[in-house]
Amino acid sequence: MLRRALLIALALAAEPALAQNRAGGATAAVSPPGEGMIDKPCPPDQRGWTFAHPYVRQYDWAWLCRYAEADKQVAQAPRVVFIGDSITENWVALAPSLFVSGAVGRGISGQTSPQALVRFYQDVVRLRPKVVHIMIGTNDIAGNTGPNSPEMFANHVAAMVDLARANGIAVVLGSILPAAKFPWRPQLSPARQVASLNAWLRDFAKARGAVYADYHSALVNAEGGMNPDLAPDGIHPNARGYAVMEPIAKAAIAEAEKLVADRQTAARRR
Fold first, then answer.
1. What's the pLDDT score for residue 98?
2. Whole-angstrom distance, CA of residue 228 vs CA of residue 245
3. Which residues are registered as beta bridge partners of 18?
4. Which of 32, 114, 132, 266 would you call most buried, defined as having the most Cβ atoms within 10 angstroms of its Cβ?
5. Cα–Cα distance for residue pair 5/44, rounded to 1 Å
6. Three-state secondary structure along 139-192?
7. What is 75-269's CATH number?
8. CB count in 10 Å sphere of residue 45
9. Model confidence over 52-108: pLDDT tens digits?
10. How many other CB atoms are there within 10 angstroms of residue 204's CB atom?
11. Which H/E stretch holds residue 71?
12. Are 215 and 178 in contact (CB under 8 A)?
């Protein structure tokens, strides 16, 4: 998810052949580490990169390289993997107590549901978690990766749920957080679409045996957004906002784990 309208404006204005180094100056773009299908396609140093880096924009649309090395370092199957956009990515730093005891964060700022789907096998299934927490959709509504439809969003979420279930992973579907305005798309009024997609997520979770984590109801204000004391820019929760979300997440994960245990018990009795 885009944190600053200025960042996007600069990224879109930049020439593809240029990148910004950590000091803020223009440097030659990072070249791919080879051509075609190769064993190690990811640049060795991505420190300081964002989703707007020219290499990511040109060569790694879903940014599979973002967590490729970190995934290889996960020695033990996590209890839960959180996949999503910047709201998930920021959660790790602003509420670290949630990301202990086998919880792993795999959020990437700015991402939409098709990008999360492309990453899903690598960043979730291959880690073999008991539970996956999927929270995505704000950037779909904003059109970060272009025009799309509610049906497209539903298909992407359904595909992730099907992948998880096929691999024995319980699913928590997190609601899209309230949003009255997008700082980077001020012409849009997303509150009604957020509510509509959340109604679909809730019903879909029930139909597929997943757990719906309703953050929206706990955070929404009268305008359909979030108050500044919980999300200063109206989109990204601060520590207080995540403190409201954390017990909802924990309860949903515990419920998903219980569903798995109940299924296993029923299978043994057959």
1. 94
2. 15
3. 28
4. 132
5. 29
6. HHHHCCCCCCCHHHHHHHHHHHHHHHHHCCCEEEEECCCCCCCECCECCCCCHH
7. 3.40.50.1110
8. 8
9. 999 999 999 999 999 999 999 999 999 999 999 999 999 999 999 999 889 999 999
10. 16
11. helix 65-72
12. no
- Of 123, 112, 3, 139, which Cα lies nearest the Cα of 64? 123
**Rounded Cα–Cα distance for residues 168 and 252 (Å):** 17
What letters, b where the CB count within 10 A reaches 16 and e where it falls short, cover 146-166?
eebeeeebeebbeebbebbee
Report the 10 Å Cβ neighbour count for 172: 26
Q: Cα–Cα distance between 242 and 126 in angstroms, integer?
A: 27
Q: What is this structure's pTM?
A: 0.88
Q: Yes or no: say if 237 and 245 are a contact pair by the CB < 8 Å rule.
A: yes
Q: Which helix (H) or strand (E) holds 135?
A: strand 131-135
Other C-beta atoms lying within 10 Å of the C-beta of residue 184 = 21
What is the crossing angle of helices 191-208 and 150-166, to 10°?
Answer: 30
Rounded to a whole number of angstroms, the distance between the first and last alpha carbons of the chain is: 46
Residues 183 and 144 sit within 8 Å (Cβ to Cβ): no
Question: Amino acid identity of 157?
Answer: V
245: Cβ contacts below 8 Å, ≥ 6 apart: 91, 95, 215, 218, 219, 237
